[in-house]
Specification:
single chain; 2 domains; transmembrane helix; membrane; mainly alpha; 4 helices; elongated
């Protein structure tokens, strides 16, 4: 049996708390999708008809991928904090700032001003 001993250990409670926070924040972005899906569910003739619809499948896929992405992102940040030996809030804030700049840089660099 192969083990993943090269992945840094992270406390499960840290992953659970971080996943909850990140997933809750991303659900705010997905609220229009779920609101539209809710209205379509109310308009459906039966529960079974709605569950077989593309809207229900799309909402379930969005929710599941958001949850999975939140868990992976949380593990990645926690593993980076553990691997770098960051022990203070100040160090974690610096590390978080670096992560934010690294993730925001592609969007900022691709921004083009269109002149008329």
């Amino acid at each position: 049996m192969t083990t993943l001993h090269y992945l840094p250990p992270v406390k499960p409670s840290a992953i659970a708390l971080g996943t909850f926070f990140t997933h809750t924040a991303s659900l705010g972005i997905l609220a229009p999708v779920f609101g539209d899906t809710y209205h379509r569910a109310q308009a459906a003739n039966s529960k079974e008809e709605f569950l077989k619809s593309k809207e229900a499948a799309g909402a379930a896929a969005a929710w599941g991928s958001s949850l999975t992405g939140s868990a992976l992102q949380t593990y990645g940040v926690a593993a980076l904090i553990n691997a770098t030996g960051t022990l203070s809030y100040k160090g974690a804030a610096y590390l978080g700032g670096l992560i934010f700049m690294a993730s925001a840089a592609p969007g900022v660099c691709s921004f083009r001003v269109i002149s008329t």
